[in-house]
Write a structure and sequence with these properties.
Strand content: 15-25%
Helix content: 25-40%
Bound molecules: adenosine monophosphate, zinc ion
Length: 424
């Protein structure tokens, strides 16, 4: 205390003397702390079940502003138009038949007695057929972070001995285990916090995932006001992200996608499979917009007679005969018999006893109701407006361009749809 007051007195005296003995100098400009010039990061954002026409409801100012400054399209998902297969396609550039995630639920003849479900999906065995972009990025020294994405919790390329932790494999540097109750605001705040880090530990590629538009679409149907409210809320979240990035001075190339769209369904448009084929001839594996079956041994002929061919509102094939345009049917994880309903119709094991949900997806990927949102905007993307529809296998090549990774050689897609928008 004494020391500091003496010091203060001395400084004051010196200052006063300066005032007395010297002409007053112009005040020095205050030098602000140097502002870091940040290089753009790439952020891949999935809004589950967001149909591109939801943007015409007048509740998406933030998405519309990004589209106006960049490019947008009604993107074709891959078949089947389900969540896990399409999220894996978006980050691998490989269709479900080859990327291994052929549905949200799977069995594999190589792993008898084990079922893959969305909740039980951490064994790299299921994911190893195609490399996700964050592994390619990490291996090229591009630090990555996922705030949810199907497959992002997996030690990719590793193995998982039964009841033990995975061995080997590559993960992103930063990831959170999926939890539906972590709010959209918390997800955005988490991503912004990662970007607040010093440059050396800051991610350069990030993913974000939002589930609420899909949930509302299933429960209330795509045309319901509740679904429009979910669309408005997610748009506000995108606005929060853009504002957070601006406040940090962090430029970003945003690639905003959906995995699939949503069709209106109804208990009245449901076909009970047990009325079509004798349940003693098959084990039904999945049902809904499509259904898949294992035959009971020795009952193949009876099952084929009842099931195969075109029926009112659905069609069934042996897996090898699924139409080529669906690019589906060679993977051993696809059950031997497969039926696909017309968009808006459902295949159920038995006659439904309750009303069920009012929306669903999983239909033909060319059905207009299955189209998926695509918007890309940022310093690397020219404002070329609406692009013609393209397949979602082209998104991973776009991300590779944005991250300056070499073009993949074994992908099903390429960056053709974006070349004009990316040109220097
Ligand atoms: P779908 O049944 O095809 O409509 O899948 C949508 C559901 O997938 C959403 O309700 C999400 O909660 C769930 N989901 C999305 N990402 C993940 C994940 N990484 N792990 C587990 N479930 C997920
Ligand atoms: Zn989905
Ligand atoms: Zn869904």
């Amino acid at each position: 205390m004494r020391l500091s007051s003496r010091l203060f007195a001395a400084v004051l005296a010196a200052g006063l003397q300066a005032c007395v003995t010297q002409p007053v100098a112009a005040p020095k400009a205050v030098t602000a702390a140097p502002v870091e010039v940040r290089a753009p990061v790439t952020i891949l954002i999935s809004i589950d079940g967001f149909r591109p026409d939801y943007r015409s409801r007048g509740v998406t100012p933030h998405l519309d502003a990004l589209a106006a400054r960049g490019i947008s399209a009604a993107m074709r998902p891959s078949f089947p138009s389900k969540t896990f297969p399409n999220h894996w396609t978006l980050v691998t550039g490989v269709r479900p038949d080859r990327n291994g995630i052929v549905s949200n639920a799977m069995e594999d003849p190589g792993l008898p007695g084990v079922k893959f479900t969305m909740a039980e999906s951490q064994d790299p065995f299921w994911w190893n057929a195609a490399e996700p972009i964050w592994v390619t990025a990490e291996q090229a020294g591009i630090r990555s972070a996922t705030l949810f994405w199907p497959g992002s919790e997996v030690a990719w390329g590793g193995t998982k001995p039964k009841d033990k932790k995975p061995v080997g494999g590559t993960r992103v540097e930063d990831w959170w285990p999926y939890h539906i109750e972590i709010s959209a605001q918390q997800r955005v705040a988490g991503a912004i916090d990662w970007l607040r880090r010093p440059a050396a530990t800051r991610p350069k590629f990030l993913t974000l995932y939002f589930d609420t538009v899909d949930t509302a679409g299933h429960t209330y149907g795509p045309d319901a006001p509740e679904t429009t409210a979910a669309v408005a809320a997610v748009d506000a979240t995108i606005g929060d992200l853009v504002a957070g990035l601006r406040a940090l001075g962090q430029p970003a190339n945003l690639v905003i996608v959906a995995d699939h769209g949503m069709a209106t369904t109804s208990a009245q448009r449901t076909i009970a499979i047990d009325k079509i084929a004798d349940p003693t001839d098959y084990r039904i594996f999945e049902s809904g917009p499509f259904a898949s079956f294992y035959p009971v041994a020795g009952h193949e002929a009876a099952l084929e007679k009842a099931l195969l061919g075109r029926h009112a509102h659905f069609e069934c094939w042996r897996k090898a005969d699924i139409p080529a345009r669906l690019h589906y049917g060679t993977n051993p994880r696809i059950p031997p018999y497969f039926c696909l309903a017309e968009a808006g119709w459902l295949l159920a094991k038995t006659t439904p006893t309750d009303a069920g949900g009012l929306g669903n997806h999983g239909y033909d990927n060319a059905a207009p109701e299955m189209a998926a949102l695509f918007i890309a905007s940022g310093p690397a993307i020219k404002p070329l407006g609406t692009l013609p529809p393209f397949d979602n296998v082209d998104v991973a090549p776009l991300l590779r361009d944005l991250l300056r990774l070499p073009a993949g050689t074994t992908l099903d897609g390429d960056d053709m749809p974006f070349r004009a928008a990316l040109a220097k």
